[in-house]
Amino acid sequence: VNSIFEGLKWLGLGWDEEYKQSERGVLHRQMADATFQKGLAYRDFTPAHSGDSEKSGAQGTWLFNPGMRELSREESDRRAAAGEPFALRFRVPREAGHIIRFNDAVYGEQMKAGADIEDFALLRSDGMPTYHLASCADDADLRISHIIRGQDHLSNTFKHVLIFEAAGYTPPQFVHLPLLVAPDGTK
User: Fold this and answer.
1) What local confidence, expressed as pLDDT, does residue 49 receive?
2) Residue 164's pLDDT is what?
3) CA distance 147 to 79
4) DSSP label at 16?
5) pLDDT of res. 67
6) Percent of all residues in the chain with a pLDDT value above 70, rounded to a whole number
């Protein structure tokens, strides 16, 4: 944390307030619950690393069990009331032709079909928010107008646009900057 503050001071930037994302869990869970109540999220009761899930990614990370998306609300409520652990996932629109788009100040218009985005987690099975949910809830709450970050986050932005829109917020202006790399190619 001190290195962040030192870097801001070095750049001549100040701040009005300090927030620790880890202390804003109530806000994050409120946004997740509101998204769920609108039918834009669902409970996924699939245990982590079970054979019923789809695998994706270089590390073989488990994404989701597509059958959970169609679980009835009644069955979902019954299982949650019985204490069965679950992750809360965003119900990404799958209709043919549904496109998520945003304009990036550096890379211009960005578009991706909803069918090409997995139903990503908002809350983990232990109730902790994911980066996607926490950052969007904080940005909406703090009325952030511009998000400036590295281009390695460009692909996350489609998920963030969905979260902002589900919560009833206009997404901020996104600015993705090329990464600075060392001579060996590392960040």
Assistant:
1) 56
2) 97
3) 38
4) S
5) 85
6) 91
Rounded CA separation 118/90 (Å): 9
Q: How far apart are CA 187 and CA 177, in angstroms?
A: 13
pLDDT, tens digit, for every residue of 138-173?
A: 999 999 999 999 999 999 999 999 999 999 999 999
Alpha-carbon gap, residue 138 to 182, rounded angstroms: 31
- The list of the chain residues with pLDDT below 70 reads 48-64
Residue whose entry in the numeric block shows the structure tokens 């009835």 = 72
According to DSSP, residue 187 is labeled -
Tokens of 11: 């750049």
Please tell me the pTM assigned to this model.
Answer: 0.84
Count other C-beta atoms under 10 Å from residue 69's C-beta.
14
Measured between alpha carbons, how far is residue 13 from residues 4, 135, 159, 173, 177 in Å?
Answer: 11, 21, 29, 20, 19
End-to-end CA distance of the chain: 19
Note whether 100 and 117 are within 8 A (CB). yes
Long-range contacts of 137-145 (CB under 8 A, 24+ apart): 137/24, 137/27, 137/28, 137/30, 137/31, 137/167, 138/19, 138/21, 138/24, 138/27, 138/28, 139/164, 139/172, 140/31, 140/164, 140/167, 140/169, 141/24, 141/27, 142/19, 144/172, 145/172, 145/173
